[in-house]
Amino acid sequence: MSRQIIKLIKQTLTYGLGNILTRFITFLLLPLFTNLLTPEEYGLATLIFVFLGFMNIIYHYGIDSAFLRSFGEAKDKDSKRRLFSTAIWLSLGTGFTFSLLIYTFSGSISAILLKDTQYVNIFRLAAGVLLFDSAAHVPFALLRMKEKAITFIIIKLINVVTTLGLNIYLIAIVKTGISGIFLSAFIASVITVIIVYSVTISSLRFNFSLKLVKDYLKFGLPFVPAGLASIMMETIDRYIIEHLKGTATVGLYSAGYKLGIFMLLITTAFNYAWQPFFLRIGDTKEAKPVFARVFTYYILGTLFVWITLSAFIHEIVRFKLF
């Protein structure tokens, strides 16, 4: 049992370190945005990102969780390749369809969400970001199931470093405004897809099983309402603030909100390692005692970090990076 827990801890620390690095690099964008964008511009960008958050749930529709479950139960390589291939072709097909709809109706979406049609091209870029992000979701899930945490983190780091560099170039040098944020995200997503497929393409075949599609949808679709409810609780306040106070207030609020990422880092790192872990040993005799001990350690660890952060939050906020 201790060997299993140690393995989980190693995976969590690997994902955790990578997640901290990626979040920290992303955090470096905050002074760039607050110094070079007006509060109104940053507020508009935030509202578009809220839209992306909602659409991500629809694009993924729980297919990664369904794939992880099925892959964990598969016994032979051919079955695993069939599961992976079907999940890939399904996600590519639905992703292309959804993005085509967003691209076609980008003017209407811009008018409804931002009360202005001048942001049509940004929503078209957003459609591309959603397409390529959804295309990479299943390959990343495969890396997690194969416990290739280092490869997973390296690709994620390439994504955020590319995003950071392009944002600095497009916003600080070229002065593109908020369109540079989404152009950077689009280019970084394309590069990420190319890399992640290059390391997982050996598992891809021209196989497509309707039976597996039904299984994926049966398991994955119930995640959609839960995911939408979760993202609504996390982000709907931006649209409420925009309605009551305007986009400038949304920009100021969102900049401050980013300070609350620290506990998210731990939870995300643990979750990346936990899902493949419990799917792999869930049917074994030692599952129950291992699960009990894991969550005891998890609660104690996160409680300690939370108390420590709460005690020193004022010093953290006042720390000057630049």
UniProtKB/TrEMBL annotation:
Protein species of origin: marine metagenome
The keyword Secreted belongs to this UniProt entry's keyword annotation: no
PANTHER family linked to this entry: O-ANTIGEN TRANSPORTER-RELATED, PST FAMILY PREDICTED COLANIC ACID TRANSPORTER
Membrane-spanning parts: 12-30, 42-62, 83-102, 122-143, 150-174, 180-204, 216-236, 256-274, 295-313
Topology relative to the membrane: Multi-pass membrane protein
One Pfam family of this chain: Polysacc_synt_3
Keyword Heme appears in the UniProt entry: no
Predominant place of localization: membrane
A single cellular component GO annotation: plasma membrane
Descriptive protein name: Polysaccharide biosynthesis protein C-terminal domain-containing protein
Organism lineage string: unclassified sequences, metagenomes, ecological metagenomes
Keywords assigned by UniProt, alphabetized: Cell membrane, Membrane, Transmembrane, Transmembrane helix
Subcellular compartments: Cell membrane
